[in-house]
Amino acid sequence: MSHQPRLSLETLAEHPPTDTRVVGPAVDAAALSIGIVHFGIGAFHRAHQAVYTELAAEATGDTGWGILGVTGRSDSVVQQLAPQDCLYGVLQKGADDTELRLIASVRGAAWPGRDSELVVATLAAPTTHIATLTITEKGYLRGADGSIDLSAPAVQNDLDLVGSELAGGADERMSQTPIGLLVRGLARRFRQGGEPFTVVPCDNLVGNGEVTRALVTSLVRAVGGADAAARDRRDGLLGWLEASVSFPSTMVDRIAPATTDADRDEALALLGLRDEALVVAEPFRQWVIEDDFAGPRPAWEQAGAIITADVAPYEAVKLRTLNATHSLLAYLGALKGHRTIAEAVSDPALRDVARAVIDDDILPTLVAPEGIDLGEYRDSVLERFANPNLAHTTRQVAMDGSQKLPGRILGTALDRLEAGHTPNGQALAVAAWISYIAATLEPGGPTLDDPLAAVLQAAVGSADAVTGDPEALVDRVLALDAVFPAALRNSAVFRAAVVAQLPVVRSLTAR
Ligand code: CS2
Fold first, then answer.
1. What region holds the Mannitol dehydrogenase N-terminal domain (predicted)?
2. Residue of minimum CA distance from atom 4 in ligand 1
């Protein structure tokens, strides 16, 4: 470990950066007040919305949009940020150049396991107008019907706390889920006067605004109505949510791989200060936001965001092209022994197949949003993946397949089937995923990082299942109704296509 001092407001003032590749902060940390609560302050938020928020504040001089970042399950991000006055750098790695942008828009960090009350009070404050979320697909705890999964003990805990908040009783217990904590804060806001509020989900889900609204309202509906007064309070909250809280959908895009020690060393060499909260990202960034705000918002468009009436076409293009191809390359690449996405996409066989899947199976389902040429979009995605300076591991993208496949792969498959085509490319992606799960059952194979890992491994059965009885294997996997919609589970065409793609995966990934 280096003996250089750690990044903070004080050390930065004492050691102003001399390297011209270091830029920012673009705003004065001391002048900012909290206007946004962000749930899931991992690398992606720090490399994406926090940057837009900072640049919008720089452009407008508006000081009301500091961010309170809420961590996920552990306190570790608070430990990274708090000792640095929440300052951190985004190490932007292009194919040919590097920049280190210091960010000051995050003005506080909270861990729900200790700081639930701070988060609730901040959500209720009239000066707070927005909650943003990057809690990953699995963080939404969505049941099969789109309601929140009330069978999860953590959701039950949080349901109880929403009831107790509505009753106005102080409760020192901690919330355990992001949606539960958000709703608890909204309940306090409602009780304290009900200033309008906007919830902006920023995860790769189809229609993330509507998805989040459905989860929030389903949690409130489940609040017990022990007596008429309790029922009135619950119904009052539901009415306020309907009238005064909006849930714009968004499409977010920026590749932000996990930070490594080598990245931290590189940033240290540029800055002369240690940054334990450093994040890494590609130069490209995009944010498309539905124009549906209940109250004020930062001028994110001044930082390059697109504010539009309809996000759906942008979202479909991004999820079905970028994210789908990412997953395809992650599974095929990992099976072939490629450590990173850049290595996988530079493998001519994999690159050709990825390109063909996009052209044959994906682009025909898309309607180009204004100003986007789909062929150029495909090329730019493959070029971004090939960035040799981003060590985005195939294992990182391969995680949580059960949560990711529906939004990025299966919708395309359904559309192709409906149009009378066999979705061979999507079947290839599913076959690659199945083969990857089988590989995790091999002694010494990768670990399956997925909330449904046990169920998936049980369905696949054994490492050699792909060569044993492939029909039976595909039937067991397609039967997983937490992943596959009925129209795919019952499609003989899709089943046959996945079976037919298993040997294709084998030959593509033979080492
Ligand atoms: C990736 C995404 O890990 C994954 O599943 O596909 O995180 C991807 O890097 C981002 O969506 C890019 O915007």
1. 35-301
2. 397
Q: Please say whether the structural domain 311-509 has been given the CATH code 3.90.1150.10.
A: no
Pairing type for strands 22-23 and 34-39 reads unpaired
Domains 9-139+175-207+244-308 and 311-509 share a fold: no
What tens digit of pLDDT does each residue of 56-92 get? 999 999 999 999 999 998 999 999 999 999 999 999 9
**Residues within a 6 A CB radius of ligand 1:** 204, 253-255, 323, 326, 397, 404
Q: How do the domains of the chain map onto residue ranges?
A: 9-139+175-207+244-308, 311-509
Which atom of ligand 1 lies closest to the CA of 396? 3
pLDDT, average across residues 291-307: 98
Work out whether the CA dihedral 49, 51, 56, 61 comes out positive or negative.
positive
pLDDT (mean) for 364-371: 94
Distance 44 CA to ligand 1 centre (A): 9
User: Can you tell me the distance from the alpha carbon of 39 to that of 135, in angstroms, rounded to the nearest whole number?
Assistant: 7
Check: pTM over 0.95? Answer yes or no: yes
- Helix residue ranges per DSSP H, 87-152: 112-124
Dist. CA 137 → ligand 1 center (Å): 11
- If phi > 0 it is left, if psi is from -120 to 50 it is alpha, else beta; for residue 5 that is beta
